[in-house]
Amino acid sequence: MSKFVSLKDSIGIFQFDFYRPSRLLPWAFKNYFNFKEKVKPRVVWTAKAKFLYRTSLLLLFLFFLVLWVKINFVIALIFSAGLYFCNFLLVCAAWLILKPYEIINRERVRRFVINKVAKLSKNGMNVIGITGSFGKTSTKAVLGQLLSQSLITPHSYNTLFGIYKVVDYELSSVYKSFVCEMGATKKGSISYYCSLVKPQIGILTGINETHYERFGSLDVTIKAKIELLESLGSEGTGIVNLDNLNIQKGLERDFECKVIGITLENSTHPRCDEYAHVSNISFGSHGTKFTLDFRNQSYEFTMPLIGQAHVRNTSAAIIACFLLNDTYADVKRKLANCEQIANRLEFKKEGSIQILNNTYSSNPDSFRENLKTLEGLEGPRVLVTPGMVELGIKEEELHKSMGEKSAKVCDAVILVGDTPRVTSLRTGLLDGGFNEKSIYSAKTSKEVEERLKDLALASMSILFENVSDLPANYL
Fold first, then answer.
1. What would the DSSP string read from start to end of 392-451?
2. Lowest mean pLDDT among 26-40, 135-149, 439-453
3. Which residues pair with 464 in a beta bridge?
4. d(Cα 417, Cα 462) in Å, to the nearest integer?
5. Strand intervals (E) in 78-236
6. Is 180 exposed, middle or buried (0-12, 13-18, 19+ CB in 10 A)?
7. What is the pTM of this model?
8. Average pLDDT score over residue span 114-123
9. What pLDDT does 38 receive?
């Protein structure tokens, strides 16, 4: 059902796309008369969002006042109502007013971060940079629990001002390591963040079509992410997910750092100086067990985290610990007591029901690996998903592929929403030979809960993939 796009809605869209008019204006002209309530991003009322909201209203009032004084009240009211209807123009105007201050403030913040991190690094602090299309936050969360006296950028703080907050308020000489997640919205982002914190170790978790819509092509995405390795220099070390074909393509680029390849599939590449081989992976309600072979040594690990995706991310974190001279015994002990990572393939049991909560986000690689994890659990397997976002022209193709893969694993699928993504998933399921009667539809969290109750499958295992709100019984 279409609805009027309020000023709050426009700011939500603007914020979601990192306050770029080049993204807001095309969206507005394309979707303004076909806007759907269920797809609007929720506004996070930061100081910037509040400024844009209040300034937009002030500009609207001044526009009304000038027309009232110059012409008459009725004309002023009609034209002001029309401008509010096209409130994205007000938002862009407010952004232009704010821009000069932002330029000055960004330079101040940039210099502050560079100076403080450089001073602490000179005194022996190590910096680890993490980037990738997926797996950044999970890798960071594990690494933060394994490394002694380390500070990590919290949540998804992977922009300049997110990094600045951590460096300003928390980073000090008591920390031996600073783990910095780096997000990219365009080519050049990662090299910019590296110029701020100058990491000695870089972890590249994976590259895929995530945010394809923003980057425009997979080739641009690869170039943007490989900037981490290019920025490390001859003294740095890159730890990469070597099973990722797009990373393998990126390794063909020219850079000087040493490269350690993490592989679960015995992948090799001439650009790698060393390998860390992962094998003997087993998982279930007990957690995950695996073996890591590195530098002619075999290491056995057990962790509460479940799934192949966590094994890849954790292996990269372990290698980083080894490079920083943490002992096997210490890493093994900490990993065995590692906490679940909220909403990122978070595992828990409710009675006889096993739940994989991957509700934070989704991408083609994690979706595939999460299905493998679901396949390894006992009982009837249920997938609940609205699909993946920001895949651009790849959306239909990738959702059909995920549907076909889901057909081979799942006993029931609950598709959330009524979007082209869901339509493509359904097509893929049917093309994969899935029983149409086992495909259910839901539009709200409550309806998802009702469908799960209707299924009433004993000892079922449920994968919530990219669902914005879990049903109350599964929180």
1. GGGHHHHHHHHHHHHHHH-SEEEEESSSHHHHHHHHHHHHTT--GGGEEEESSHHHHHHH
2. 26-40
3. 357, 384
4. 18
5. 126-131, 150-152, 177-181, 201-204
6. buried
7. 0.82
8. 96
9. 43
**How far is residue 98 from each of residues 54, 186, 274, 458, measured CA to CA in Å?**
12, 22, 49, 57
Quote the CA–CA distance of 470 and 475 in Å, as a whole number.
Answer: 6
**Exposure string over 38-48, b if 16+ CB within 10 A, otherwise e:** eebeebeeeeb
β-sheet bridge partners, residue 294: 276, 297
User: 76-86, pLDDT tens digit by residue?
Assistant: 999 999 999 88
Enumerate domains of the chain plus CATH numbers: 7-102 (no CATH), 124-336 (3.40.1190.10), 346-474 (3.90.190.20)
Instruction: Collect all residues with Cβ–Cβ distance below 8 Å to 307 and sequence separation of at least 6.
Output: 283, 288, 345, 347, 356, 369, 370, 372, 373
Give per-residue burial for 82-113: e unless 16+ CB within 10 Å, then b: ebbeebbbbbbbbbeebeeeeeeeeeebeeeb
Rounded-to-integer distance, Cα 323 and Cα 222, Å: 26
Cβ partners under 8 Å of residue 189, min gap 6: 182, 183, 224, 227
* d(C-alpha 410, C-alpha 78), whole Å: 56
Q: Which residue has the tokens 């993204």?
A: 23
Task: Please state, in angstroms and rounded to a whole number, the distance separating the CA atoms of residues 263 and 302.
Answer: 18
pLDDT digits (tens, 9 = 90+) for 154-196: 876 778 888 999 999 999 999 999 999 998 878 889 999 999 9
SS3 state of residue 55: helix
